[in-house]
Design goal:
The chain is of the alpha+beta class and 114 residues long. The protein has three helices and three strands.
């Protein structure tokens, strides 16, 4: 996947007109547009949003996806932590901060839509 191999987000308004997309993987689906962000540096995964119509993701939507990706990375790291481990409290704090960031981004999206 391009986003993972390049460690960069991608906004793809039309999957059929973008060389970064393996069209055969989406041909039988509803997907017409997508936005993807990497998870981690270097990337270990990607998280995306999909649209059934041609659509260009806004910077706000990309910020929301990035916040979700950050939360996913923190949660994945926490799977390896134990309650007695010294880094557990730092991770818990980062998880709370990340959750607030996601909640704020979602609230902003609702406000923008009116």
């Amino acid at each position: 996947m391009w986003v993972i191999s390049h460690d960069q987000p991608a906004i793809i308004p039309d999957i059929y007109n973008d060389a970064r997309v393996l069209v055969s993987a989406y041909r039988s689906t509803f997907v017409r547009s997508m936005a993807m962000v990497p998870v981690g540096k270097p990337s270990i995964a990607a998280i995306g949003a999909y649209w059934a119509q041609p659509h260009t993701a806004t910077p706000s939507k990309m910020d929301t996806l990035a916040a979700i990706a950050d939360s996913a990375l923190i949660e994945t790291a926490d799977l390896h932590a134990t309650a007695g481990h010294p880094r557990h409290e730092r991770r818990s704090r980062r998880r709370r901060e990340s959750s607030r960031r996601v909640e704020g981004a979602i609230a902003h999206e609702r406000d923008v839509k009116g």
